[in-house]
Amino acid sequence: MFKVRLSPGGEFEKGFEAASSGFRRVVEAAEGAGGVVRIYSYPSRDALLAGAYLFKRLLALGLRPVAGVSVKPPPVVSPTVLLGYDGLQYKATEVEHPVLAVSSGELRGTPVMNVHMVEAEGSVSAAAAIASSEVVGYRGSWDVMVALAGCMAGRYVERNGRFHGLDRMLLDELGRIEVYSLEVLTSLKAYKPMEGGVCEAIARTVNPYYPKMTGDPGYCVEVLRGEGLEGLASRSLYSVTDRDELGRLVSTILSHVSRYTQRLEGEELVEEYVGGYPISTAPGAPVADARMALDALTMAMELGGLEGLLATVMDLEREYPIAEAALEDLARRFEDLLSRLKPRRVKSHPRLRLYLLGQEAREAPLYLLWRALQITGVVERDSVVAVEDGEGGAVASAPQAEDALGVGSVRRIVESRLGRLEGLRLWLDTSALQR
User: Fold this and answer.
1) Is 401 exposed, middle or buried (0-12, 13-18, 19+ CB in 10 A)?
2) pLDDT tens sequence across 311-356
3) Where are the beta strands (DSSP E) in 200-350?
C-alpha cells in the first residue's frame, strides 16, 4: 500500500504525482478489464458529491463506473475508488485490483500492495478533483460546479468564507478560469445575490432560513419599509456596496430574524446569516451561486437518493435547473411546512440526540428541514431529525446525521446496532434508543 499526504506547500508536486498515479492505475486497470470502475462513497455530502463528480468524469473516458454507498469499504471486485473513509482493513489476498482511497484527514490501514491511500488536507471533493485532473481535467463549467459544491460541503470552509488547504488551491485555480471567475461575497447569505432584488433573494433562500421572509418577498419589503430601506428591496444584494447602507440592511434583517428564534441575538446567530460565500461573476457561468448549487444537489440526493444525485450530475444542463426550481418551490412552502411539523424529543441516548417528526414529513428534504429547525433553536445543532416509519422505527438523512454528530457518526451508529444504512437514509431503532 502506498500512502501519501496531499497538501499545499513545498511537497505538493510530489503528493500530486503520487495521487494522480493512483488514479491512473485505476483507470488503466479498468480499461483492460471491461471498463468497470466501482466508486464507493461514505454517506457524507462531501464524499457523495466527490463520487458523483468522478462518476461523470469516468464516463467521459469511456469507462463504466458503478457508484455505491457504504459505511465501510466493501470487498474489492474490480478497480475501485473509495471516498471519505477513515480506515481500510484489507488483506493482501483480498486486493487483486488497484484501489485509490481518498480521505479528508487521517486514513488508517495495514500496508497492502495495489492500494493507493491519499490523506488530503482538504475536502474529499477537492482532493478527488485535483488527483483526477491530470487524466480527465476539471475545467468543464458544469463539472466545476459539482467540484465547487463538494468543497462547500467539506470541513475546510468557514462561515465567513475562508477556505483552507486543497480547497483554497482549487478555488484559486477556478478563479483564474475565465468561465467561472470566482470571488467571495461577504454579506447576507441569500441565494443568487446578483439576480433580482434583496427581498427576492431572501425569499428564495432556505439555507439559512429567514423566518416569515423565506418564500414571501412581500413580507421582506414591509420589514425594510418600516426601517426606511424600501429602496434596497428591489436592488440586487451584490450591488449594495455602501458600507453604511449594507450595515443598516444587515442589522434590520438580523433584528427581524432574532424575534422569531429562541436564541438571543449574538455572534452565533450573526454568523449563520452573514458571511462569505463564493459566487461567479463571469457572464457565461452556468451556475453563479455555489451555496445554492450545493443545496439543490443536496435536495436531489435527499429526495431521489444516490440515483437522483447521479441523474442530476449526469445531465446538469437539463437536470440542475429542475433541482433549482424544486428548491425555490420548497422556499414557497417552507413556512407552512415548518408550522405543521412539531418535532418530538426522544429520550437522549449517549450516542444520539433524536427528534421525531410525524409521517406527514416523509416527503420533505430532511437535511434542509433540520437546518431550519436548528437555526431557529427548535432543535440542537448536534441532533438528528427523523421521520417515524409507523413500524417502531424512524428514518433519518444519513448526510444530515453525519454533519450534525461529527465525522464517522453514521458508521458508529451502525456498528452500535442503533440503526442501519439504507441507501442515503439511516433507519433508526427508536426502541433501542430509549432503553
Assistant:
1) buried
2) 999 999 999 999 999 999 999 999 999 988 889 888 767 778 899 9
3) 274-280, 344-345
For residue 317, the surrounding DSSP H or E stretch is: helix 316-340
Cis geometry, peptide bond prior to residue 111 (ω within 30 degrees of 0): no
CA atoms of 374 and 404, how far apart (whole Å): 10
Give the whole-angstrom CA distance, residue 237 versus residue 228: 17
Name the class of domain 2-150.
alpha beta
Calpha distance 393→428 (Å, rounded):
6
Which residue, chain included where needed, has cell 448549487?
Answer: 293
- Nearest-10 Cα torsion for 79, 85, 137, 52: 90
| List of residues 6+ apart from 118 with CB closer than 8 A | 3, 4, 5, 6, 15, 18, 19, 22, 100, 101, 102, 103, 107, 127, 131
Cell numbers for 122, please give them.
482538504
The whole-number average pLDDT for the span 126-131 is 93
Indicate the domain borders of the chain.
2-150, 182-281+286-332, 341-433
Rounded distance, CA 78 to CA 99, Å?
9
**Residue length of the chain:** 435
Contacts of 357 (CB under 8 A, 6+ apart): 341, 342, 343, 344, 364, 369, 385, 386, 387, 388
Residue type for 113, please?
M
- Determine the 3-state secondary structure of 366 from DSSP: helix
> Residue 426 belongs to what H/E stretch?
strand 425-429
Span 227-233, average pLDDT: 94
Question: How far, in Å, CA of 331 to CA of 218, rounded?
Answer: 14
pLDDT tens, residue by residue, 41-55: 999 999 999 999 999
Rounded average pLDDT over 22-32: 94
Rounded CA separation 246/186 (Å): 11
CB 371 within 8 A of CB 209: yes
Q: Grid coordinates in use for 10?
A: 513545498
Angstrom CA distances, 338 to 176, 190, 259, 342, stand at: 42, 19, 16, 8
Helix (H, G, I), strand (E, B) or coil at 384: strand
Backbone angle region of 352, left / alpha / beta, with phi > 0 → left and psi within -120 to 50 → alpha: beta
Q: Quick one: cell of 211?
A: 423566518
